[in-house]
Amino acid sequence: MTKQICNPPGWPSEVPAAETFYNAALPCLASAWQPLLGRAEFEYSQPKILVPSNGNATSPCGTVGPTTTGFYCSSNKTIYLPMGRIHPDWNGVPIVYLSLFSHEFGHHVQTLSGSLQEAWRQRRAAGSDSPAGLEWSRRMELQSECFSGLFIGAVVDSGGPFTESDIGNVLQAWIGDPTHGTNANIDAWFNRGVQNQIALCNTWIASSAEVA
Q1: Where does the record locate the signal sequence feature (predicted)?
Q2: Assessment of whether the complete model's pTM goes beyond 0.85
Q3: How do 62-64 and 57-59 pair as beta strands?
C-alpha cells in the first residue's frame, strides 16, 4: 500500500465532527485500496458512511445500537459509526478513530472481493454461535483488523500528523471477544498489517490458535 498523508480534521467529539472526520478520511482509504483491488481485478465502489444521530440505526443487516462501536452492512455497503460506545480515553486521539474506520472499511474490501459473503456462508453452515462458526467470525474480523493495520502503516511517518508512536494508542484501544479474537491476536494481526504485505493478512489459512 502506497504511503500517503491523511489528515482528517479534529476527531469525532460529536456527530457533526464525526461526519466531517470520517468523510475526510474516506478518500484516503479509497486511494489506498483502489490500486490494490484493481491489480487483483476487483472493481472498486465507494461505501456510504452513517453516523447515527441518536445512537441507533436500522440497516438491512439489523439494528445498530448505541453500544456498537462500528458496524458494516454488506447489503447496502454502508459503514455505521455510532457515538455511544466511544471510550473517554479516545478523546483527542484521532488515530484510534481512523483505525476503527479503516477496520470497518476492511469489511467493505472483503465484500468487494467476495470473502465476506463466503465467510458468512461458512459461519451459517457451521452454526453461527458454534465453536466452528465463531472461528469463522474471528477469521473475518482479524483479517479486517490486519487491513486496518495495513492502512495505518501507510499513513504514519508519511509527512502528515501521524507517527509510528501513535500506533501504541491503537493497540491499547481494543478489547477482544469470542467473535473478534483475543487481545493478543487482535494486536498480532494489526501488526502484521503494519508490515505492508497484504499476503500476511490471509487469516483464512492461519492456524486455529492464531485466530483464537
Answers
A1: none
A2: yes
A3: antiparallel
